[in-house]
TrEMBL record:
Pfam families: EzrA. This is Septation ring formation regulator EzrA. Negative regulator of FtsZ ring formation; modulates the frequency and position of FtsZ ring formation. Inhibits FtsZ ring formation at polar sites. Interacts either with FtsZ or with one of its binding partners to promote depolymerization. Residues 1-8 are extracellular. Residues 118-166, 354-381 form a coiled coil. It is a single-pass membrane protein. Residues 28-574 are cytoplasmic. GO terms for biological process: division septum assembly; septin ring assembly.
Length: 574
């Protein structure tokens, strides 16, 4: 082997060994850093004032459940500070030895094991400190809360002692609650003094709850009892006194047993007092609502009769006079109907209605007589009488309104007759004017349809005149005829305008079309047909249409121009 090759191999070995040494040194240093971290955490853990906290709680001289809990935390701290600490020290020492001898694979496992032990120790110490803190806080909280609860209890106790009367039948129940709460506080003090704050806390919470309940009861009972002891009895007595006086004053209550209802209310008050003695405040409140409703009802019953009497005394004379007034009006209406029926047909059962009014008014008059007698004999139920008077008044008001309606309608008959008669002359003049307009045109003839409508209108007008001249006229039918005649005349006037205009326009169109007669055969033929329709058949609109179409064919726009000129001339003439 060559010398250079041997040298190369030797150098390579040296380099590899150097690299391995460097890696080993680095890994050792990294492990030492982790060991330092572990050492710092160990020192920090045992620097915590756990021992002082244990001693502080220990000095509270706890007993019972609290003492058992403390012993558990104390034992767990003892285990940590002795066995667990020794175990951790052993593991750290093992890691150091393995690291110094470069046994890095075992170092890794041992180091992880040591860190796990450290984590568990820290968690355990945290749990121990939390448990000790809760024990201490519970003791301190009991000390603070007890004074507050005792103060409230003493205040309630003093209130009950100094104001027993305002609690009525609930006094004994309240005293029993006071004694029960006092026993709970005594038990609490005993437990707290003997060093068992956790059990004492439960007793204190129960005492606080019962104290709050008692405080609410002490607040709510006085107003409830005041109603049962003072307000309701006073109201019941007032109702009893008022009822007796009203009976002496001859008031009647046929639909209600007031005495029985008063007894029912008194029974409810007794029931509510008994339940109040048991401390069942919700039930008492519900019964009180029922009592108030019953009392309000009784007040309403008495007040209704009192108001009824006042109403009857005030309005009975008024309604009686109203009956007389309406009866008088009806007699006058009957006379007026009898007189009117001789000249006019009455189509709306006016006479029958008036007789019905008379019957109803007579019935009401008898009711007023009976009511006056009942009042005089002190045999009236005023609330019922009040309702009857109001009903009677409304009936009389309705009857009077219908009387006025009929009377007004009778007056309208005469007005309508006069108005219809006054229109006859105008209708006749309008009809004659339309006739003269047609005659003035000197047409070759009049279309039969126009003549038919003219004669229908004329006959209708004649019928209207005949109806108005009857001894006993029917204004309903006459008013209908007036409307028909007016409508007929309007239609006839329109037909007259159409007749005259179509005839005149036909003549002008024929005259204008004459210039095309020899040059346009269609115009000549149209003129011939138009003349026949005009002069023989008197169909002036058809004649106009015939010549108009032909003229438009040879001279578009001519028809419209001639038509416009015609209507313009007619307007100027008018």
């Amino acid at each position: 082997m060559k010398t250079s090759t041997i040298l190369f191999i030797f150098l390579t070995i040296i380099i590899i060994m150097a690299l391995l040494y460097v890696v080993a040194v680095l890994m050792k240093r990294k492990n030492e850093e982790k060991l330092d971290e572990l050492e710092e955490r160990k020192v920090a853990l045992f620097d915590l004032p756990v021992f002082e906290e244990v001693q502080e709680v220990k000095r509270m001289h706890l007993v019972g459940q609290s003492q058992n809990t403390f012993r558990e935390w104390n034992q767990r701290w003892a285990d940590i500070s002795t066995a667990a600490f020794a175990e951790l020290e052993s593991k750290i020492f093992e890691v150091e030895n393995l690291n110094d001898t470069f046994r890095f694979i075992k170092v890794k496992d041992s180091l992880e094991n040591a860190f796990d032990t450290m984590d568990n120790m820290e968690k355990e110490v945290a749990a121990i400190r939390t448990g000790l803190k809760e024990l201490k806080t519970s003791e301190e909280r009991n000390s603070e809360a007890v004074q507050e609860a005792l103060d409230k209890y003493e205040m309630i106790k003093e209130t009950v002692k100094s104001s027993e009367k305002q609690f009525g039948p609930a006094t004994e129940n309240i005293k029993e609650r006071v004694v029960s709460i006092e026993n709970e506080f005594t038990q609490f003090v005993a437990l707290n003094t003997s060093g068992d704050p956790m059990e004492a806390r439960g007793v204190l919470e129960s005492a606080e709850k019962h104290t709050q309940e008692l405080e609410k009861i002490v607040e709510e009972i006085p107003p409830l009892y005041a109603k049962l002891d003072t307000e309701y009895p006073a109201q019941i007595k007032e109702i009893e006194t008022g009822y007796k006086q009203m009976k002496q004053d001859n008031y009647r209550f046929p639909e209600i047993n007031v005495e029985q209802e008063i007894a029912d209310v008194q029974a409810k008050v007794t029931e509510a007092n008994n339940i109040l003695g048991k401390g069942l405040l919700t039930e008492v409140s519900n019964i009180n609502k029922v009592i108030e409703e019953q009392i309000d009802h009784l007040y309403d019953v008495l007040e209704t009769e009192i108001k009824g009497r006042d109403y009857v005394k005030t309005n009975l004379p008024t309604v009686s006079e109203y009956v007389t007034h309406v009866e008088k009006n009806n007699r006058q209406l009957m006379i007026e109907l009898d007189h009117t029926s001789q000249s006019y047909a009455l189509n709306n059962n006016e006479l029958g209605r008036a007789r019905g009014f008379q019957t109803k008014v007579e019935e009401l008059g008898q009711e007023m007589t009976n009511l006056n007698e009942a009042v005089k004999n002190k045999e009236v139920v005023f609330s019922t009488a009040e309702k009857n008077l109001k009903d009677s008044f409304n009936i009389l008001k309705e009857v009077e309104g219908q009387q006025v309606e009929i009377s007004t309608a009778l007056k309208d008959l005469r007005k309508d007759e006069k108005a219809a008669a006054g229109k006859i002359e105008g209708y006749e003049f309008q009809l004659k004017t339309l006739k003269r307009r047609v005659e003035k045109r000197r047409l070759p003839g009049i279309p039969q349809s126009y003549l038919d409508y003219f004669f229908v209108t004329s006959d209708r007008l004649e019928e209207l005149t005949t109806e108005l001249n009857r001894l006993r006229i029917d204004m309903t039918y006459i008013n209908k005829l007036v409307g028909l005649v007016e409508s007929d005349l309007d239609v006839l006037e329109t037909k007259t305008d159409e007749l005259i205009d179509s005839a005149a326009l036909t003549e002008q169109m024929l005259q204008y079309a004459n210039r095309y007669r020899h040059t346009h055969k269609n115009v000549a033929d149209a003129m011939e047909r138009s003349l026949m329709l005009f002069s023989q058949e008197f169909k002036y609109q058809e004649a106009l249409d015939e010549i108009g179409v032909a003229l438009e064919q040879v001279e578009p726009g001519a028809f419209k121009r001639i038509e416009s000129y015609y209507y313009q001339s007619e307007t100027e003439e008018i």
